[in-house]
Amino acid sequence: MNQSLIINSKMRRFLLFALTAGIALPLVACNPKKKTSANIEPVVVETLISATESWNGDSYAYPKGKPQMTLQRITAQPGFKTSLHFHSQPGIAYVVKGNLSCEALNGKSLKVGPGESFATPQDSIHYCESVGDEAALVFVASAGVKGQKLTVPYKK
User: Fold this and answer.
1) List of domains in the chain
2) Residue 137: is it exposed, middle or buried by C-beta count within 10 angstroms (0-12/13-18/19+)?
3) Which of 27, 80, 107, 138 is the most buried (most CB within 10 A)?
C-alpha cells in the first residue's frame, strides 16, 4: 500500500477524533443537570417579586411610547426622605441593606429591610425615607418610556 495513503488515513482518523472531541467535550461540560459539587446546583433561579399591582394597591399599566427599561442603584443616607412624588410607570425594588419606610397619601404604608422586595406605586403620590443607623442600598427597576421622567415631583 502507498505510504502517503496510510498517513492520510491515519491523519483522517485523528482529525475525525479531534473534531468529535472538540464538539462533544464542550457539550458535556455545559450540561445543565451536571452538578458542580455533591450538593450544589450550578444555577439557582429565585423569583424575588412578581406583581400585578404595587404595595399600596395601584394596578399597573404600561405607558405609551418607545419602551425603556431602567435599573437604578440608589444609596440613601440615614434620615434621607424623598419629597412627595409619583411614578408614571411600573417598577420593582430590592433592598440590599438598610431600611425604608414609605407612605402614600391614601394612608397606606410600607416598611422594608434587607433582602425584601416590593412593587413601587404607579401614579400614587408617596414618599420614602431611609430609617435606621445605616444607609439604605436599593435597586429599582422601571418599565418606562424613553424621555419620560422616572420620578415626578408632586406639586400641590
Assistant:
1) 1-45 (no CATH), 67-153 (2.60.120.10)
2) middle
3) 138
Backbone φ and ψ of 130, nearest 5°: -85, 115
Residue 7 makes CB contacts below 8 A (sequence gap 6+) with: none
For residue 126, the one-letter residue type is H
Q: How many helices (H) and strands (E) does the chain have?
A: 1, 9
CA dihedral 92, 112, 116, 62 (to 10 degrees): -10
Residue with cell string 412578581 = 50
Residue with cell 419620560: 148
| Cα–Cα distance, 155 to 68 (Å, whole number) | 25
Angle at 137 between CA 142 and CA 129, to 5 degrees: 85
Cα-flanking dihedrals φ and ψ of residue 15, to 5°? Answer: -65, -40
Model confidence over 118-154: pLDDT tens digits?
Answer: 999 999 999 999 999 999 999 999 999 999 999 999 9
In angstroms, the CA 144 to CA 67 distance is 6
